[in-house]
Fold this sequence. Notes:
Layout (H helix, E strand, L loop, with lengths): L1 H12 L3 E6 L4 E3 L11 H14 L10 E5 L4 H16 L14 E5 L1 H11 L16 H9 L1 E6 L1 H6 L3 H33 L1
Parallel strand pairs: 2-4, 3-5
Antiparallel strand pairs: 1-5, 3-4
Helix pairs in contact: 2-4
Amino acid sequence: LKGVQQVFECLQKNGFGHKAMVKPRETLTHPSNRGGSLLNATDVWDKGMRMAGIGIQPSMLQEGGVAFEISTDQTTRQSKLKANEEVVAGSNGALAKVSMEERYLTVATSHTAAFCKAVEQGCKSADGMSVEMKSDDGLHKIITEGWPMFVINEMVERSIPSLPAWLQMAMNSVNMGFKQVNEIERSEEHTSELQS
């Protein structure tokens, strides 16, 4: 995480990165995400439904969101849009359609953004589940207002093409570490309950 923080500080100091409120409808997933597979629609809905099941808390999304500006170079832009369109086409309606109005490519909180975007567009999971956007105040808020993301200028990816994949791996490692700690804590709680 220290290395990631240093990259963010360097980018921000030199005017190539900044924090911004980003709405899910403004995002697509970076094609480098998950080794080029971008997203898994089942994972998007599983994670989203778990969040919705306990109640979405926008305060939990204050850190960790990272996105690159979509390139203004038309050839590059089209390749990124096409990669997302292919994933959407293979999702059987579980993922939101590409609107061509998107401005950012996520490399962290991608599944959350995709879930929110799918909910906003009225998509359903592979097993027919859906969520009403207004059913949860937190969900409604993050869909309509977004959450803070560290946004990286498109010029950075042109200069360092490997950075999106590296950041995605680094950010997922951090998130996985938190998930494992939570699962260990939960196991310890269950053990304590069984012993008493």
